Amino acid sequence: MKLVFELSKQGRASALLPECDVPEALPDAAFRRAEAPALPEVAEVDLDRHYNGLADEAFGVCNGFYPLGSCTMKYNPRINEEVSALPGFSDIHPLQPEGTVQGALEAMATACDLLAEITGMDAVTLQPAAGAQGEFTGLLLIRAYHKAAGDDARTKIIVPDSAHGTNPATASMAGFDTVNVPSNESGGVDLEALRAAVGPDTAGLMLTNPNTLGLFDPNIIEICSIVHEAGGLCYYDGANLNPIMGIARPGDMGFDCVHLNLHKTFSTPHGGGGPGSGPVGCKAHLKDFLPAPIVEKRDGAYALVNPERSIGRMKSFYGNFGVAIRALAYILALGKDGIPEAARTAVLNANYLMSKLEDRYAIPFAGPCMHEFVMDIGPLKEETGASALDVAKRFLDFGMHPPTMYFPLIVHEALMVEPTETESRETLDAAAEAFLAIWDEAHDNAEALHNAPLTTRIGRPDEVRAARNPVVRWMPDARDFGGSDGAKR
């Protein structure tokens, strides 16, 4: 399709605005452009068709199967959108007096209470804007706790080798050094390596459970005890809470704080850079350090209060309010019976799909899995030359989004598959048939896989060239890299 700039014709417009009826106020000249930006000039119908065309080119959970491992790309019920769009939620302003937004504050307090109940925590903040910022918030709580105790020697965070990539980055941002501990032969944390790693300099542990291999660590109580006995705190990366919500609680496992990905577990929008929300829960001994403000009920009314030793704000105002409302609608709709049912169905779907594939594809760690499983394409690559990238690219030709590639890093030719609870058995059967067909094709005609995808609008790009010489803006006099349509950059 053409770029919107190529649709532009001088003098066309998409809006007829009335003349300004208030005095014009412009910023200082130093902050103004010397000339107007070269924006496209198009009619409203052209603009509408352009953006609808872009939407048609995108692929999401409403288009088809999207088994992106460790990201829980599940369907978002439309009722969540309707609830968050109610005027009492969507038409308010964050600077309104508290007395005029009691309903919104009650909704926030209710969301915090329910998330605390699900995770086994004592308090929750909705402020962090994403999972990574939630991680950062959790580690700042741990840092503040040790600092308040006068224990400045605790400078190290322990991170398993199967952790999400954001964990060591977050630890570094929070001012800690990272200590990596290996996995054992079962895919869990090596207890002896953990014991050797902890000491008087241990500030805490960052852990995902189930881990990125889709495995629940049976030693989780002992893992947390080892860290606590050394004087550290335990942080739960909530990216993989989806298969255990309503069944097992991080707080009961021994974790002191947890972040949640509302888009992964509680069915709010995911992808495209946002909107994000990464609430953080903590035990009572960390509550006084939570970001300010939090919602509390005092004298029969809800109020925004600042914890006594707060680490400060993590985001303007009170977090992504609309996303929190979507999550609240989801939790209330499912209730105490529906939350664990969704978790069990996620586990059932993953094990069902894995059982359909394990006779052909290598599964590096024995099941049963939880919400996701990892396939090792290494043996297939040795036999046929078809890599994990080839299999993933070919999967696109079956009208489905490929799984996560080359993660976790401890499996070198990894494909990580997460079906989620919202997919039907028929969809899982179709996905299994696609994977099996690709396996057969790898043995019969591996070259086809090297060139995949074959039926999509854009084929296999030169990814090295795209990374080294990205074209990220339109230039009126430049041409694309030899494209047949001569599209401008």
Automatic annotation (TrEMBL):
CDD domains in the cross-refs: GDC-P (cd00613)
Stretches assigned to the Glycine dehydrogenase C-terminal domain: 342-447
One Gene Ontology molecular-function label: glycine dehydrogenase (decarboxylating) activity
Keyword Isomerase: no
Modified residues annotated as N6-(pyridoxal phosphate)lysine in this record: 264
InterPro entries registered for this protein in UniProt: GcvPB, GDC-P_C, GDC_P, PyrdxlP-dep_Trfase, PyrdxlP-dep_Trfase_major, PyrdxlP-dep_Trfase_small
Catalytic activity: N(6)-[(R)-lipoyl]-L-lysyl-[glycine-cleavage complex H protein] + glycine + H(+) = N(6)-[(R)-S(8)-aminomethyldihydrolipoyl]-L-lysyl-[glycine-cleavage complex H protein] + CO2
Top EC class for this record: oxidoreductase
EC number assigned by the record: 1.4.4.2
Function: The glycine cleavage system catalyzes the degradation of glycine. The P protein binds the alpha-amino group of glycine through its pyridoxal phosphate cofactor; CO(2) is released and the remaining methylamine moiety is then transferred to the lipoamide cofactor of the H protein.
Self-association state and partner proteins as the record states: The glycine cleavage system is composed of four proteins: P, T, L and H. In this organism, the P 'protein' is a heterodimer of two subunits.
Descriptive protein name: Probable glycine dehydrogenase (decarboxylating) subunit 2
Species: Raoultibacter massiliensis
Gene field: gcvPB
